[in-house]
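SAMPLE LOG
Freezer: B-3
Tube label: C17
Construct: single chain, 53 aa
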Amino acid sequence: MLATVCHHRTEHAENDFPALPVRTGEDVRVWFGRAEQAPPWPHQRLRLEPVTG
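STRUCTURE (predicted):
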């Protein structure tokens, strides 16, 4: 079982903040959650690095 904590989908809008590098024409679906076992679909586990500045 997967308990979803947060879910994001692509927003198809013009990038009005040019300092933010955004790819156009890409569809992305991202969610964060906890799972007791790996999901049955293709997945990739990533680790976030701390940001300083």
